[in-house]
């Protein structure tokens, strides 16, 4: 009887269970701190004692440490060693799962004020439900891991391509500066420093991208291990807050955006335009080499593809030097001109020296310009225009430019469309270079060694037209 009286003295009159953090109020009665909190009015004002109804205030609460120690000792003495299959408070079998608190509870817990408003489910059903969710989560995480690894692989390839672009650009810059090495050595180093700075900045960005991907992969690995461990755990361990790992798995982000790495540093040599002008020559079109669909001005500085004289665009006064038109079909032998492709050669034949000329196109349609051997009129396929057949040219349009080679080349986009291109032939060095005639930026260089006779080359797409601007007086 004394033991029952002791248990009654150590029991909270609100929850009817052993005291949890017992506190005393002004009237001297003791209650669990949490049970008493639920008795307060909103705002934390005065409240009535649940037993004697005497008023008290939250500020009057005092922890009863002696009662807490006595309660704990009595609980251990009466309940004995705790079993993992029993409720820690009521020593009843854990038969339910509380969705709100994410833990197993007993039937007595369900009836307590703490859990009365909570959603409950049988523990077996909860175990099966969360196990299926965890297994599904594991499968989704594996798919995310595969996607992340794919991103990692693509990023590695992207970095490799970018390194090749850096290598090519460095060679281009070094080659161009070597032409003016004696008085532009400092400028060469400046441009190389800019490229190196760009390289370092891009490397840092790549490092950040790879670090982000590695962090994503590490996080996914950890989540997969955690989910796998959770899914293989015992019933009670698995049901210890399983929603947390599910939520973190669902929120794991594997989105990633790729960025095409281009080289921003251009090869723009000071005074390059002025230097090239020293070698500028007048180039005239040879009517006797033109394809029949090409119409050429009388003085040989303008050519269009497939247009009649009446459909010419309106030019400014600067271009009103066309005095007439010639149809090459009337003045040439068939075997001496292009029969299959809309091409025409310049009258000039270069066997030595340095030569520079410019070509202008204002309609942004596709054209190709460069130099060639004299015996290329028999070519039948525009896709074969390349150094292999004796043509060293670049193709350009509003979308950008690209060198015409036997290998596939991605067009280089320009910040502004190319309207005027300069062609520089250094016969002694055995190369032909192309520049933007507006700002002197280097575009591409071909090697055309071991060819003794070279002529200007032009190709026009349907409706395209090009102009060979006049050379200033004194040239």
UniProtKB/TrEMBL annotation:
<dbReference type="InterPro" id="IPR013083">
    <property type="entry name" value="Znf_RING/FYVE/PHD"/>
</dbReference>
<dbReference type="InterPro" id="IPR003877">
    <property type="entry name" value="SPRY_dom"/>
</dbReference>
<dbReference type="InterPro" id="IPR035829">
    <property type="entry name" value="PRY/SPRY_TRIM4"/>
</dbReference>
<dbReference type="Pfam" id="PF00643">
    <property type="entry name" value="zf-B_box"/>
</dbReference>
<dbReference type="InterPro" id="IPR000315">
    <property type="entry name" value="Znf_B-box"/>
</dbReference>
<dbReference type="InterPro" id="IPR001870">
    <property type="entry name" value="B30.2/SPRY"/>
</dbReference>
<protein>
    <submittedName>
        <fullName>Tripartite motif-containing protein 4 isoform X1</fullName>
    </submittedName>
</protein>
<keyword id="KW-0862">Zinc</keyword>
<feature type="domain" description="B box-type">
    <location>
        <begin position="82"/>
        <end position="123"/>
    </location>
</feature>
<keyword id="KW-0479">Metal-binding</keyword>
<feature type="domain" description="B30.2/SPRY">
    <location>
        <begin position="262"/>
        <end position="473"/>
    </location>
</feature>
<keyword id="KW-0175">Coiled coil</keyword>
<keyword id="KW-0863">Zinc-finger</keyword>
<dbReference type="InterPro" id="IPR003879">
    <property type="entry name" value="Butyrophylin_SPRY"/>
</dbReference>
<dbReference type="InterPro" id="IPR043136">
    <property type="entry name" value="B30.2/SPRY_sf"/>
</dbReference>
<dbReference type="InterPro" id="IPR050143">
    <property type="entry name" value="TRIM/RBCC"/>
</dbReference>
<dbReference type="InterPro" id="IPR001841">
    <property type="entry name" value="Znf_RING"/>
</dbReference>
<dbReference type="Pfam" id="PF00622">
    <property type="entry name" value="SPRY"/>
</dbReference>
<feature type="coiled-coil region">
    <location>
        <begin position="192"/>
        <end position="230"/>
    </location>
</feature>
<feature type="domain" description="RING-type">
    <location>
        <begin position="12"/>
        <end position="53"/>
    </location>
</feature>
<dbReference type="Pfam" id="PF15227">
    <property type="entry name" value="zf-C3HC4_4"/>
</dbReference>
<dbReference type="InterPro" id="IPR013320">
    <property type="entry name" value="ConA-like_dom_sf"/>
</dbReference>
<dbReference type="InterPro" id="IPR017907">
    <property type="entry name" value="Znf_RING_CS"/>
</dbReference>
């Amino acid at each position: 009887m004394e033991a029952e009286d002791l248990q009654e003295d150590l029991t909270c009159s609100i929850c009817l269970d052993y005291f949890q953090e017992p506190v005393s109020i002004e009237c001297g009665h003791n209650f669990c701190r949490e049970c008493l909190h639920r008795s307060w009015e909103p705002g934390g004002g005065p409240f009535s004692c649940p037993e004697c109804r005497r008023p008290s205030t939250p500020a009057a609460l005092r922890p009863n440490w002696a009662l807490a120690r006595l309660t704990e000792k009595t609980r251990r003495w009466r309940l004995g060693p705790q079993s993992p299959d029993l409720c820690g408070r009521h020593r009843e079998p854990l038969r339910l799962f509380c969705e709100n608190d994410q833990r197993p509870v007993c039937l007595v817990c369900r009836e307590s004020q703490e859990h009365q408003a909570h959603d409950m489910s049988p523990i077996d059903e909860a175990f099966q439900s969360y196990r299926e969710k965890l297994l599904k989560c594991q499968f989704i995480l594996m798919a995310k891991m595969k996607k992340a690894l794919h991103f990692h692989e693509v990023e590695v390839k992207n970095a490799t391509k970018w390194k090749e672009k850096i290598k090519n650009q460095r060679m281009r810059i070094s080659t161009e500066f070597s032409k003016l090495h004696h008085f532009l050595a400092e400028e060469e180093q400046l441009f190389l420093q800019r490229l190196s700075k760009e390289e370092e900045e891009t490397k840092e960005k790549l490092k950040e991208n790879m670090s982000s991907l590695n962090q994503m992969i590490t996080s996914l690995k950890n989540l997969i291990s955690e989910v796998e461990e959770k899914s293989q755990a015992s019933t009670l361990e698995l049901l210890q807050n399983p929603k947390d790992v599910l939520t973190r798995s669902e929120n794991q982000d594997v989105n990633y955006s790729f960025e095409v790495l281009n080289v921003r540093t251009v090869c723009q040599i000071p005074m390059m335009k002025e230097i090239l002008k020293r070698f500028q020559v007048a180039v005239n079109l040879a009517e006797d080499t033109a394809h029949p669909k090409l119409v050429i001005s009388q003085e040989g500085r303008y050519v269009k593809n497939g247009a009649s004289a009446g459909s010419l665009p309106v030019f400014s006064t600067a271009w009103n030097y066309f005095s007439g038109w010639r149809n090459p079909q009337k003045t040439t032998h068939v075997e001496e001109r292009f029969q299959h492709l809309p091409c025409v050669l310049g009258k000039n034949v270069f066997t030595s020296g340095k030569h520079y000329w410019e070509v202008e196109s204002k309609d942004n349609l596709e054209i190709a310009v460069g130099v060639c051997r004299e015996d290329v009129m028999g070519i039948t396929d525009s896709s074969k225009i390349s150094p292999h057949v004796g043509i060293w040219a670049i193709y350009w349009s509003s979308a950008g430019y690209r060198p015409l080679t036997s290998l596939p080349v991605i067009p280089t986009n320009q910040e502004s469309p190319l309207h005027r291109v300069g062609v520089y032939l250094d016969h002694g060095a055995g190369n032909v270079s192309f520049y933007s005639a507006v700002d002197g930026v280097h575009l591409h260089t071909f090697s055309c060694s071991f060819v003794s006779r070279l002529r200007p080359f032009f190709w026009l797409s349907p409706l395209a037209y090009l102009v060979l601007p006049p050379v200033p007086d004194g040239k």
